[in-house]
Each structure stands twice: as C-alpha cells, then as structure tokens.
Design goal:
Radius of gyration: 17 Å
Structural class: mainly alpha
Number of helices: 4
Strand content: under 5%
Largest sheet: none
Number of strands: 0
Mean pLDDT: 83
Low-confidence stretches: none
Distance between the termini: 33 Å
Length: about 80
C-alpha cells in the first residue's frame, strides 16, 4: 500500500509520475488495477494484457503464500517441527 498508491497513476497519468514511481507502478496491484480500469473506461479494453498478468501473478503469489502458511501451521499443530 505504501509504495503502490503513489505509483498507481490514478491521480496523475504514468508519464507525469516521477521516474521511480513510474518504474515500479505497473508491477504493483494498485497501478495494474488503475491501468486496467482506465483501459476499460477509455480504450474499450485494449492494452489490458500486461495489467491482467500482473494482477494474476499477485493473486497466484497470495494463494501460494496462504497455502504454505496453512501447511506450516498444520504441521506445528501436530507437534512436528
């Protein structure tokens, strides 16, 4: 959230963002979500592939982390280190 909101490009389009925020913004969920919404609203859904891939990768990463944490918790509950 701390890095994602300033780099999302919601208030300002990506070309007007500082170089650091412009570089990381598209790889973070808020930036990808903002770009996808902008593509749907103004460009008839064109150029959404990259933002959907970013959002899918973050979702898949979240699922993997959740499954690993669940397995670790179950393992500790059984008493196996």
């Amino acid at each position: 959230m701390i890095l994602g909101n300033p780099s999302a490009g919601g208030a300002l389009p990506p070309p007007l963002l500082p170089p650091f925020w412009k570089a990381i913004g598209p790889a973070l969920p808020p930036g990808a979500g903002t770009w996808a919404a902008r593509s749907i609203a103004y460009f008839e859904g064109n150029d959404m592939t990259a933002s959907l891939l970013v959002l899918s990768a973050w979702a898949a990463g979240g699922v993997v982390v959740t499954l690993l944490a669940s397995a670790l918790r179950a393992r500790r509950a059984q008493g196996t280190p």
